[in-house]
Amino acid sequence: MFRSSFTFDKLLDKATSHLQLEPDWVAILQICDLIRQGDVQPKAALAAIKKKVTNPNPHVALYALLVLESCVKNCGTLIHDEVGTKQYMEQLKELVKTTTHENVKLKTLELIQAWAHAFRNSPKYRAVQDTLNIMKTEGYNFPALKESDAMFIADTAPVWADGDVCHRCRVSFGVMQRKHHCRACGQVFCAQCSSKASTLPKFGIEKEVRVCEACYEQVNKPSAV
Ligand SMILES: O=P(O)(O)O[C@@H]1[C@H](O)[C@H](OP(=O)(O)O)[C@@H](O)[C@H](O)[C@H]1O
Ligand SMILES: [Zn+2]
Ligand SMILES: [Zn+2]
């Protein structure tokens, strides 16, 4: 886990370096992979990204907004649950109010509007639409909506469940019996019931990650010809 968060920080520094002449999409998508694979916690990732978004250097801030945009597009519920909150939207509204860089302001307005459209049928993320409406009444001019900005990948790995016993064999967790999570179904298992690994292309996970016995069978069963 430590190595992954170190990798995450390195990738974020690289993706938001003011020395970049253009977006480093490889680094940006690797950041999304780390989040999707559960290698870095969404809260920690977003906190690090927010620090970069509020960086006084406009290049760093703008690249950080691109990272944020990609995470929302590619990491699904894991990220939406954090970004779609009143608290997070207030932070973005504050950025629009305080930034002295027109392009940072414009990009942030663009994101708020795209997310409000993307989450228009999700009461859970009501705070996004509310923020858009409030800012419009406060006189902020939003750019024209680009439908493509509001298109997110549909399938992302499920949020991890919690539990005191293994979802498969019911053994109780403790000091000698550690919890593990299957990246495919999100359930919690003992080591014996989640000892296998598999790629999960349907969730955009290209590296082998921990899966439970049932999901391993499901993902690797020979497809019916
Ligand atoms: O080893 P621990 O200190 O118990 O921490 C556990 C590991 O981080 C597991 O990662 P893994 O699924 O990749 O094993 C994770 O699924 C559990 O939720 C954590 O409790
Ligand atoms: Zn078990
Ligand atoms: Zn599973």
Give the topology.
Layout: H1 2-15, H2 25-36, H3 42-53, H4 58-74, H5 77-83, H6 86-98, H7 102-118, H8 126-137, E1 180-181, E2 188-189, E3 196-200, E4 205-211, H9 213-220
Antiparallel strand pairs: 1-2, 3-4
Helix pairs in contact: 1-2, 2-4, 3-4, 4-7, 6-7, 6-8, 7-8
Bound molecules: the ligand O=P(O)(O)O[C@@H]1[C@H](O)[C@H](OP(=O)(O)O)[C@@H](O)[C@H](O)[C@H]1O and zinc ion (2 copies).
Ligand ITP binds at residues 1, 178-181, 210.
Polypeptide structure, described:
The structure is a single chain. The longest helix has 17 residues. The strands form two sheets. A two-stranded antiparallel sheet has the order 1-2. It has 225 residues and is mainly alpha-helical. The chain is elongated and about 60 Å long. A hairpin with a 6-residue loop joins strand 1 and strand 2. The model has no long low-confidence stretch (mean pLDDT 91). Helices cover 50% and strands 7% of the residues. Helix 2 crosses helix 4. The chain has nine helices and four strands.
Task: Report the major sheet.
Answer: 2 strands, antiparallel
- Cofactors, ions and other ligands in the entry: ligand ITP, zinc ion
If strands are numbered along the chain, what order do they take across the biggest sheet? Answer: 1-2
State which percent range the strand residues make up: 5-15%
Fraction of residues in helix: 40-55%
Task: Please tell me how large the radius of gyration is.
Answer: 19 Å
> Residue-averaged pLDDT, rounded?
91
